[in-house]
Amino acid sequence: MSLREKFDTLDVPPMNLKQIETFVWLARLSSFRETAKHLRTTQPAISARIRELEEALGVPLFTRTSRRVRLSRQGSELLRYAERIAGLAAELQERAGNLGSIQGLVRIGATHAVATGWLPKLLKLLSAEYKGIEVMLRVDMSTTIYQQLLRNEIDLAFLLGPIAHPSHSYLPLGSIDLGWIAGPGVDRLPATVTPADLASVPVVTDAIGSSLHRICVDWFRGAGVEPRVLHTCAGLLPRAQLIQAGFGVGILPAAAPELYRQLTRLRRLTSDPPLPKLEYGMAYHLGDMPAAVRTVVRLTREKLKDTIGDLSL
Fold first, then answer.
1. Do 170 and 164 form a contact (C-beta atoms < 8 A)?
2. Does one domain contain both 132 and 75?
3. 260 in the same domain as 195
């Protein structure tokens, strides 16, 4: 009998939703300690639920090491069924109109620009409407966030797009105009700057490997020149602060109201050739999602569609 036949014909009473929910979260977090913390219970309780579920199913769901756990071959096959059951239970809860009782951890990855722009406002809205949803945030370069999504270390990613992957859904949220920004000490630049004009000026750009670093380097190389000094700094606000402190020029979002209100000594430059736009989007795993993740996806769709250009809500 195949695992699917075994699951479909299984006598249901030995199982319960708590065991299935624990299975799903332990598969996601790979840690008894973190799963217990998330589900607000003890590690022995998590172990007992998994043991009871394994006895009911008749197969081992995990392989255990000293610190982490990994899905067994059988566990990997059965996880999607467990996720489906957990998702249906969450939908039942939503259909009953009990939205305020939705609970769960949502692991979000975001770029520095998003984290210092509209994301705090989105999370504030989420917290006001859904008290039971917790967020674990990871802020990093877009390429790093995407790898975390592929490794199932996060549930939802706000990153540079577009991306295409058979296991993930991607929703474009909008595009951001980029511009060269100058700080004090570089007042003699022409009204419209070219790569040759900026080649002798210190340049502050994002970390090596980032999209902004690539855009910056390609903009100069397209004209056959190289910047004399190229500083690298991960993080939108730290880069802007370095530029304002007199480190030269850099590429920043053309519209970032909060940023430019904080840093008043920055001056926007027109460039020739113009810089490309950055597309931002939301990526998440295909298939059944926990209610908390589905809620954040829905809220993002409602609040952010076509409003991302100014980095605000």
1. yes
2. no
3. yes
